[in-house]
Amino acid sequence: MADKSQIQKMFRTISPTYDLLNSLLSFHIDKWWRKKTIALFQPQWRQQNKQIILDLCSGTLDLSLQIVKNSKPHIKVVALDFCYEMLQEGKKKIPADWKNRIFLVCADIEHLPVRDNVAGGAVMGFGLRNLIDRQKGLEQIKRTLKPLAKLAILEFSQPNSRFFQALYYLYFLHILPMIGGLISGNSYAYKYLPNSVLKFYTPKQLQKILQQVGFGKVRFSLLTGGIATLHVGKKYVT
Ligand SMILES: C[S@@+](CC[C@H](N)C(=O)[O-])C[C@H]1O[C@@H](n2cnc3c(N)ncnc32)[C@H](O)[C@@H]1O
């Protein structure tokens, strides 16, 4: 099991090639997954009240940019990640006229520097799996959300069809680490990726954890035969 500083270092080393490899290794499907994630919030963004949306483990800001693209100026994004270099890669992609809508914060999700009950929503794309203390991270997210605000978590999962599994594991456990290692120069990172997915919760387990932390109406949808899962829940106050 990697520790926090190893994870930080790993993302630092792969930051220059992260976006390229994301698109290449997922055959661009990641873009569609992110659009589905953001679509969950669009009805609430049509209301004109100002809202802050947290993009947690924001990396190179793909979800933040999707949020801004699909909402009006009253929606602002605070993107948080503990890897400065990932945020810097993301910063290069922010168009000049969006600079007052995305705010970058280099911070640990397990110690969120955000006040209680301020965020109108939160997204976390492929981040939760990397947290050392996931329970603490989820509690921190819940603390910062306004009552009834939504949290959407996009994460890798494992396919459910036997036939697809065979093909998927061949690709995910052998081909992807090879290509990822060659292009990024960090073979550890692209072995860590499938290993961490295999050890991660099943969608049903994560649903239960979210409920235990205090999220209600928790549901999930399997994407692309189950290789990714989109979870959504609302902060409940008891
Ligand atoms: C796989 S990347 C996902 C990036 C982005 N959300 C996306 O959809 O592509 C995971 C990110 O989580 C960040 N991360 C991991 N653990 C973290 C923690 N405890 N606090 C803040 N960021 C963390 C890493 O630095 C990395 O940028």
Structural domain tally: 1
Shape annotation: globular
Order of helices and strands: HHHHEHEHEEHEHHHEE
Mean pLDDT, all residues: 95
Let me know the CATH homologous superfamily.
Answer: Vaccinia Virus protein VP39
Going across the biggest sheet, name each strand in turn: 3-2-1-4-5-7-6
Ligand list: S-adenosylmethionine
Descriptive notes:
With 238 residues, this protein is α/β, with parallel strands linked by helices. The chain has one domain: Vaccinia Virus protein VP39 (Rossmann fold, 3-Layer(aba) Sandwich), CATH 3.40.50. Helix content is 45%, strand content 23%. It contains ten helices and seven strands. It has helices spanning 4-14, 18-25, 29-39, 42-45, 62-69, 84-91, 134-144, 162-184, 187-199, 203-213; strands at residues 51-56, 75-81, 102-106, 119-125, 145-156, 215-223, 228-235. A seven-stranded mixed sheet has the order 3-2-1-4-5-7-6, with helices on both faces. Strand 6 (215-223) and strand 7 form a beta hairpin. Helix 3 (29-39) crosses helix 5 and helix 8 (162-184) packs antiparallel against helix 9. The longest helix has 23 residues, at 162-184. It starts with a helix and ends with a strand. The model has no long low-confidence stretch (mean pLDDT 95). The structure holds S-adenosylmethionine. S-adenosylmethionine binds at residues 7, 11, 57-59, 62-63, 81-83, 86, 108-110, 125-127, 130-131.
